[in-house]
Amino acid sequence: MGDAADLFFRTDDPENCLDYRVRPSDEQYDAQRDRWNDLAEHLKEDLSNRSGYAIATWLQGSYKYGTQVRPSNLEAEFDVDLGVYFRWQGEPDDGGYSTQELKQLVHLSLHEYVADGGNEADNVSPPKNRCERVHFLSDFHIDVPAYHLDEARDARSLATEENGWEGSDPKAIYVWWKNTISAAVRPRARRLVRYFKMWAALRLAEEARPSSIMLTVLVAEAFAAVDASTLSGDDEYFRVVVSSILNRLQQSPNVPNPVDKKEDLNRLSTEANDDLVEALDALLAIAERALAVPSKSEAADIWTEAFDHFFPVPEEEEIVEALSRALATIQFVPEVAIEATVGSHTLSGINRIGPIPKGSDLTFTLMNAARLPIGATVSWTVRNSGDEAEQENDLGHRNTSSNTVTETTAYRGSHFMDVAVHLNGRLIGRRRVPVTVSSMGVPKRNPKRPAWTQLRRGRR
């Protein structure tokens, strides 16, 4: 087990681990469930009336597998897949509808759902090749692929915009997943899939990003072949799975559908696949470096290269202790001055600040920058927490590398500005700067500390 294993996953302090920070909150899971249930009821009735066929729905994709991740940035959305199945006996072409006509029925039904006004549906995207998409108001969309289902043969075909009917059976691949990964180890497999999905969202351009099902199959097949007797924490499992996937894709880009070997789940272009392999090679190097360093603080710093602000860092006491034991001959203790301005009022602090109101403009300055070793670099990372930040999917970001940075408080809660100092690629200093944010106005001198705090990227 590496030094940072409990920063990937832990049960005694679950909110301070990568697994917690990359997945939706319980409230977000519940909100998505309520919306797709409501949409499913609408589609079953409305599409039956439009088509004359009985309609079934089936939840599929990341939500079904338990591998969904939160959006990696403020512009991204949660994604849920809800299949609709037009049921008639015989072949797909026996139903009297072309694939485009069937998709158009779904498209029109989604527009009617949006027009209802009694839900949070906001708009419908133009038709996509393999689905229709409806957007909701709170960073969330549902993709609705349309299928033909012949129950007698238990046969399914997907209606596409450009390629006609495609053999596709989401239920069969979900059964494969459950049969391949036993219930006892499935929680870890789900976590590994989530780590890969967040890494891909952060590090790969959209055109070089594997599909969710491709990543799920790659991780599942690599995980199933792991010799668990030699491994312990999620960090070690992650490195082994990264290595396995990299070796596989270096030998061949093909990722056969495990329940239909004729289908290649890798739809990336040759150039995009090369980009993926290159990124995996860099990820493996990060994992190996992180597992080789002697302290949790150094390991967390390296893992941040893969996961940005989603990867947590140890508490201040652990950081100080780790740096004091470090072999580096040069150490640096950052001292940070903070100034918070709201209206005509200004509050200040050293190495911490708060409580301060939401909407405050913050300036963080490295007070002892003149003492930095020649060649040292300074980096700042906002790490948000709490209900408000989670609901907005804003758990932080990296800031510019300079001696002074600015931010704006947007959420109540206890947040951190983490400053790190590197020399020749080695961590030589770090400080966690707590920022406590309340919804109150300018606080009185020495007020009682509130329970929640947070930061948000300042507009530039």
Can you put this structure into words, describing what you see?
With about 450 residues, the chain is α+β, with helices and mostly antiparallel strands. It has helices at about 5-10, 20, 25-50, 60-65, 100-115, 170-180, 185-205, 210-225, 235-250, 270-290, 295-305, 315-325, 385-390, and strands spanning about 55-60, 80-85, 120-125, 130-135, 140-145, 145-150, 155-160, 165, 255, 260-265, 335-340, 345-350, 355, 360-365, 375-385, 395-400, 405-410, 415-425, 425-440, 455. It is globular and about 80 Å long.
Question: What are the defining features of this structure?
Answer:
about 450 residues; alpha+beta; Beta Polymerase, domain 2; Immunoglobulin-like; eight-stranded mixed sheet; five-stranded antiparallel sheet
Approximate shape: globular
Report, as a whole number of angstroms, the end-to-end distance.
Answer: 42 Å
| Biggest sheet overview | 8 strands, mixed
How many domains?
3
The count of strands amounts to 20
Low-confidence stretches: 449-460
Q: Which structural class is indicated by helix and strand composition? A: alpha+beta
Q: What is the CA-atom radius of gyration, in angstroms?
A: 25 Å
